[in-house]
Specification:
Number of strands: 5
Strand content: 15-25%
Largest sheet: 5 strands, parallel
Strand order of the largest sheet: 2-1-3-4-5
Structural class: alpha/beta
Radius of gyration: 13 Å
InterPro entries: Bact_response_regulator, CheY-like_superfamily, Sig_transdc_resp-reg_receiver
Protein name: Response regulator
Keywords: Phosphoprotein
Number of helices: 5
Shape: globular
Length: about 130
């Protein structure tokens, strides 16, 4: 089963996205972490196939979590940064190669990119 950790302080968004993933990609196991500080222990000790990290959160922002995750051995190509910011701003903050993708979480066109990532992970977990 493909394991995803969704880190975002917006409970409405995490409930929506995790519900969508569970319904559309049943072989993917989504864990929600609404507190970025508690995410540190999960990242450090659990083997996730994909991290979805919100950029703007209180106490620890997404870029710090990205840095922590890569320092603990997670492949940067298994990390997606999500934000409500404009794509140009996001690409300034996270230039190409910083992580797998930097996506605006409210833009409909960005959903297609997330779906490609989820579909790939679903296939690796045994889905068709």
């Amino acid at each position: 089963m493909g394991r995803i950790l969704l880190i975002d302080d917006d409970r409405g968004f995490t409930n929506f996205l995790s519900g969508y993933i569970r319904e559309t990609y049943p072989l993917l196991d989504v864990e929600i972490c609404n507190n970025p500080v508690s995410a540190l222990q999960r990242i450090k000790h659990d083997g996730y196939d994909l991290l979805l990290i919100d950029l703007e959160m209180p106490t620890i922002d997404g870029l710090k979590l990205l840095s922590f995750a890569t320092q603990t051995g997670m492949d940067k190509n298994r990390i997606v940064i999500l934000s409500g910011r404009d794509a140009d701003v996001l690409h300034e903050l996270c230039p190409m190669g910083t992580c797998l993708a930097v996506l605006n979480k409210f833009e409909a066109r960005q959903k297609a990119v997330l779906d490609m990532i989820f579909n790939s992970l679903h296939k690796k977990a045994g889905g068709i």
